[in-house]
């Protein structure tokens, strides 16, 4: 899809500033309506006050939105970090969350200043998609409990294992059944929204589904939980000095690294996707990483959620006809006005509806089409994706991503060490052996087995000129083999070096 190109500041004939402002204003309202239920839902699912989701959305608009980097990308709290935030809050407490997010932002700022943003494009796509799939699975499993109004187990495997019992418990409780029915209806509305007439689809699907669920809840007096409202100022709690002491913990530092890796990768991959949707200036990856870092630093100082660029909001921004970064800044303004003037509206939103929105978002994180395509064309990449996702569910987010990265590196090293041995034996004279490709320690067993199978009573000419790479371990092994073969009484092995 190709949308309108964002304005780069160059005067264009026939387009006035007022026209661009009207387009950005309209787009900002659309993005605001898309962002509102997601900000609240992500906060509730992360185990923090609902208002903190709005705070992160506001900072994403007013801070990250004003900075250079990506023209039309919109930042805020993301479903992809929900699982990690929930784990962090459970392990270290809500006061430590601000420290973690602040440290994440400072690391991102440093990485952008060191021009490391572009290197995130080198991360294996299979690892990133596996990460998203794992997050999606854990998110779905966890939010199904919220849909039924039940507490969720802490571990990913525990969530999955407890689903049969959840179904049985829900069927036996009228309140849980009503909650689950409301959640299921919300998912159905989300799935079927695109089939509505064009005018109805001008309302974002998530907002429409949550609004309908809210109306049904009060029209029928359903016994379901609603959002707890604390007030914007009461929810903002900057980290105190005692909370910073947690930075001495290896576990908390590991959580910071996980936040940095996942938030940065998700933001920069989103930027690449948004760039494909319009014809304007391309993303400046290092500046975009610094913009995300600045936003996370401010969010951390406010004790709020981490932010990333969010593809759903960004795509809505482009499709709504945004021209400049004013649209994403204005969406932050609308979130601020809502949080300041209408916070009580949140208290009417049923929690099962928000959980259903995140179940739907989690399903969309699982790249089913990409998995099928990878399995047909690159089964090694498909295995990396699957193992990454399973590791995240079975162990944790951080360890799962590290396992995926390690597998991707090992796979690449194995494939890059392709080696071919051609042997020519004319029956008389020396046996000629020609090695080509990359000789690394990973291929040592194959190299030595092939060479030791050569006739021991014949001279050998070993031609290494076809090797692109010969590491120290292989060179030493080849020289040792040549000495042993020469000691058997035949002419010394003739080595032709690369």
TrEMBL record:
Keyword tags: Membrane, Transmembrane, Transmembrane helix
UniProt domain SLC26A/SulP transporter: residue ranges: 21-388
- The protein's name is Sulfate transporter
- GO BP, one annotated term: transmembrane transport
The protein's predominant localisation is membrane
Q: Where in the cell is it found?
A: Membrane
Family annotation (Pfam families) = Sulfate_transp
Q: Which domain of life is it from?
A: Bacteria
InterPro entries reported in the protein's UniProt record: SLC26A/SulP_dom, SLC26A/SulP_fam
Lineage, broadest ranks: Bacteria, Bacillati, Actinomycetota, Actinomycetes, Kitasatosporales
Q: Which residues are listed as membrane-spanning?
A: 25-45, 52-72, 92-111, 123-145, 175-193, 205-227, 247-274, 333-363, 383-410
Which species?
Answer: Streptomyces fructofermentans
